[in-house]
Design a protein that fits this description.
Blueprint lengths: L2 H23 L10 H23 L4 H4 L4 H29 L6 H4 L4 H21 L8 H26 L6 H30 L3 E9 L3 E8 L12 E5 L10 E4 L11 E6 L3 H4 L9 E8 L10 E7 L3 H14 L4 E8 L8 H7 L5 E7 L9 E2 L4 H7 L8 E5 L2 H13 L7 E4 L5
Helix pairs in contact: 1-2, 2-4, 2-7, 2-8, 4-6, 6-7, 7-8
The structure holds flavin-adenine dinucleotide.
Length: 438
């Protein structure tokens, strides 16, 4: 099945998961109708909860689900649709309280029904979840701590929402309807169990050993890894995996990294090139040879494969890693189509893989255009940043015939995507991998 057909199938399944439980509420024995705003508010609450529950499916890293879009698009959707669901859930009590102000009087009687307590817990967890997700960097919350809290708050929010529904009992008088919603919630939470317990068990049984630790230009270290006691996996050039170096796959410490090696090798060995950018990446050059590591992959849709007259690879900084895998693979399979690499780096000495790229020119139709933001004295090449003008100077027309791959800092990617639009390149012709989807 093509990616387009698969994406339609998954979208239909997604919508069914949201709408079927809602429509199920309208079948069987129904309570007497209440005013429009009360019913509307209840519908918002139910819809918000159904969408929230499905977030566990979106982030469960099911390869067959995420493949047609790529992980970054799925995470982007997860963020946007969560905000929408939280808005629905928050508007639900606001409408209820304005239509039925007497509900606010409960605490004075000291008789808060347990359904209301769980509603409060659910909404409070959702708000905490949104604030910590949107302001993680500003609040300086370490990634691992944030991730654990994020999952815990999500479980509390969804379970609280369900208990509120059951406690209130409206629309759920029929046991089968109650069972349906309870089963749905158990399914959502089982997805977390799958991701955090079952999947790590599989990864634990398929470890890798570090065979070589190679220093590269640009404060980057390459880990060469071999499968230990199994045959490894096959990946497409441009895909990535989740790497755990210290600790077991059960810990929330896996980091995403593109594979930088050729995908055309048959011995299962895989390389990842990591730039020193923070707590985890800083320690990578200290990994001893022989260290046991875990790799969960491959993931992502940022891969070559479509028919194209030439591949245009646009990389900024460490965004070179998936491009390197593409170039090495094309060289290994003897693909003679033209490849133009536009590669933005800070200065001449920090160009990761500089020497190897020079050598690879002899093995495939590769043109490398270095763009330096701090060029040395006497530099006659491109300087500054990669822009639409730089593309126009180095690419043959018609621009819309080539296949484009973009990976680098977010500002660079935004500018290039805008530039390609101005050059008349349709969106279907360019592919992006964003390194900041979480
Ligand atoms: C699909 C993809 C492919 C990538 N490929 C490469 C690559 O080939 N080479 C490379 O050097 N970098 C790559 N990165 C970026 C790399 O994952 C981050 O630089 C690294 O995780 C930062 O970790 P840190 O603890 O050193 O930095 P920190 O300063 O602690 O974190 C910096 C930011 O990185 C993100 N981050 C930190 N920990 C995690 C985690 N466990 N999971 C997810 N994100 C996290 C967070 O947004 C955090 O704010 C890739 C990222 C993605 C999403």
């Amino acid at each position: 099945m093509t990616y387009a057909a698969r994406s339609i199938v998954w979208m239909v399944i997604y919508l069914l998961f949201i709408f079927l439980p809602l429509f199920a509420l309208l079948t069987g024995s129904l309570p007497p109708a209440r005013g429009f705003w009360t019913e509307f508010s209840a519908a918002l609450g139910y819809s918000g909860l159904a969408i929230m529950g499905l977030q566990f499916g979106l982030t469960a890293r099911f390869r067959f689900v995420t493949e047609p879009w790529g992980e970054d698009v799925i995470y982007h959707f997860h963020r946007r649709i969560s905000l929408f669901a939280v808005a629905l859930v928050v508007v639900h009590p606001l409408i209820m309280f304005s239509v039925h102000p007497e509900l606010l009087a409960f605490p004075q009687y000291g008789e808060v029904p347990w359904g209301a307590v769980f509603a409060f817990l659910s909404v409070f967890s959702l708000l905490a979840l949104v604030v910590t997700a949107l302001s993680r960097a500003k609040l300086r919350i370490p990634y691992e701590l944030w991730h654990i809290t994020h999952v815990a708050l999500a479980i509390i929010a969804v379970t609280g929402g369900l208990l509120h529904m059951v406690g209130w009992g409206f629309y759920l008088a029929d046991p089968w309807k109650r069972s349906l919603w309870i089963a749905l919630t158990i399914f959502w939470i089982a997805l977390v169990f799958y991701v955090r317990v079952v999947k790590p068990l599989f990864i634990l049984r398929r470890p890798y050993r570090v065979q070589e630790v190679r220093r590269e230009r640009g404060d980057t270290t390459t880990l060469v890894m071999r499968p230990d006691g199994h045959t490894g996996f096959r990946f497409k050039p441009g895909q990535f995996g989740w790497l755990t170096v210290w600790g077991s796959p059960f810990k929330i410490t896996a980091h995403p990294f593109s594979f930088s090696s050729s995908a055309a090798t048959s011995d299962g060995h895989v390389e990842i090139s990591i730039r020193n950018l923070g707590d985890f990446t800083r320690e990578i050059n200290k990994v001893p040879v022989g260290q046991r590591v875990y790799l969960d992959g491959p993931y992502g849709a940022f891969t070559i494969g479509n028919p194209a007259d030439m591949h245009v690879l646009i990389a900024g900084g460490v965004g070179i890693t998936p491009m390197m895998s593409m170039i090495r693979t094309l060289a290994d399979v003897g693909d003679k189509r033209a490849v133009v690499l536009l590669y933005g780096s800070q200065d001449w000495d920090s160009i990761t893989f500089r020497e190897e790229l020079e050598k690879l020119k002899a093995r495939l139709g590769l043109t490398v255009v270095h763009v330096l933001s701090e060029p040395p004295v006497g530099w006659t090449g491109e300087r500054g940043f990669i822009t639409a003008e730089v593309l126009m100077r180095h690419l043959p027309k018609p621009y819309a015939d080539h296949e484009y791959f973009i990976c680098g800092p977010a500002v660079m990617m935004d500018a290039i995507e805008r530039g390609l639009g101005e050059l008349g390149v349709p969106m279907s012709k360019y592919h992006s991998e964003r390194y900041s989807f979480v």
